[in-house]
Design brief:
By secondary structure, the protein is mainly α. The chain is 69% helix and 0% strand.
Length: 133
């Protein structure tokens, strides 16, 4: 139940931020614009960019990132690979927000390693019970 509440809070925060930026005329970059400047791990970029390129930064929610994690599991990535890619993504957003002026006003909540492990266990259980996701 706690994770459901956290998801609702994340979605509410993201919706409010999206509306606030739109009202004051702040144009948020797309993922590829931030990746070009701030994503320093080329190997992580090879997996992140095909999935996220074309998405406005404000549309990259925790739910979208969960979809990415499951996508990578389906491709055969292990927890360490996924966690490394998510860490690179987090660093990219942190760097973009730390510039003056900020290149982004939004950094999605990135799942931590324990959450990635729990997603993998759930995915494996579902794959075993239903023949895959």
């Amino acid at each position: 139940m706690g994770s459901k509440l956290k998801q609702q809070q994340d979605q509410s925060h993201e919706s409010l931020l999206h509306a606030s930026c739109s009202q004051v005329g702040i144009v948020q970059p797309g993922f590829e614009e931030l990746a070009e400047v701030f994503l320093t791990d080329q190997e992580a970029g090879e997996h992140l960019e095909p999935y996220f390129n074309g998405m406005p930064v404000l549309d990259i929610s925790c739910e979208v990132i969960r979809g990415y994690v499951l996508h990578r599991f389906r491709q055969g990535a292990d927890n360490d690979q996924v966690n490394s890619e998510l860490l690179s993504m987090k660093r990219m957003f942190d760097r973009a927000m730390a510039t003056v002026p900020p290149r982004s006003f939004h950094a999605p909540r990135i799942p931590v390693p324990d959450e990635v492990e729990a997603m993998r266990r759930a995915w494996l259980k579902s794959a075993n019970n239903e023949g895959g996701w």
